[in-house]
Every structure is written in C-alpha cells, then in structure tokens.
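Risk register update: the risk of archive-format incompatibility is retired. Evidence:
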Amino acid sequence: MVKRDVEDTKIPQWFLVHTYSGSEKKVLAELEERIKGYGLEGRILNVFLPLDHESVIERGKRKIKPVKVFPGYLLIQMIMDDETWYIIRNTPGVLGFVGSGNKPTPLTPDEVEKIVNRISEEEAKEKLNFGVGNKVKILVGPFINMEGIVESIDEGKGTTKVILKMFGREMPVEIESEYIQKI
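Archived output:
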C-alpha cells in the first residue's frame, strides 16, 4: 500500500476498481506509474490490493501464502474528479469503477475497515503454533479433517502425538507436525 499526503481540500474516498482477474499486480504497478507521471500524488492517495494470508500445503510442505480477498479488484483512496476518474478508468487492465451506471460509488468506512483489516501473515502463522493440550485439526492423510487434542510434541522428529476419538475410544496418533493446524 502506498500512502501520500493530502494536498486538496476535498475529502478523499475509497473506491473499488474492477480489473482483469489475475492482472491486479500489473494494474497496480501501472497505476503507480501513471499517478507519478501525471503528478496526481495529492489526489490519488492509496492504491491497495487486499490480501489475506493462509496456510497451504505445497509439495508436502506448509507455507503461508497471500490470497487475494477480491480477485479482479483493487481498492483506491482518492479525491474523485474528472481527471482522476479519467486517468484510472483509462489505465490498461482497468475495466471500470464499481458503482451504478457511470457514477462510481464510494465505500463506507465500515466496508473499508473490513477489507483492509484482513488476516495478516503473523496471524496466519499464529494459527499454526500449537502446544500440548491444544485442540488441533489434521490437514492431510487418512485422518484428514479429524480433530483431536495434542498429547505430546517431539520437535526432534518433527512429529506430534494427537489423541483422536474414533469408534467410541480415544486413540493416540503420531502425525508430522507440519500437517496439523491449531483450531
């Protein structure tokens, strides 16, 4: 997110801009260049690609990856006037503003807060951290999506012993720690 100082007396508002899905980062970079090139830093204040972070397993390893909250959309804080509207609307990859008819509709402060305050990378990592006695969910293997309680953790081997309830009994199961997520 790029932040700038307000030079104008008008109040900046947040808008959703529709882009080609998969081109959000390219459009964001193009918008940044155009804003600088046209000297609009005082009227187009923030260009933002809303992201969540989640734990995924790729090639047998757990990673924290950014995930687009609204694929095909960018969030822009700007003072809406004919020039700023024209520059953004005519940026390659931009399909238009979200709104009724030709008039862009600004987002409410509550909507902006919900979009901007997403799951951070630190919060996603925190969900992975678990200890003895924590309730966890198994992410892969024959026990996928089963929930249990951590009985012990062997950091040397990278495994965790989880107590699962199966067939009306408690059963200890040893699973690689990277395939377990704290609930």
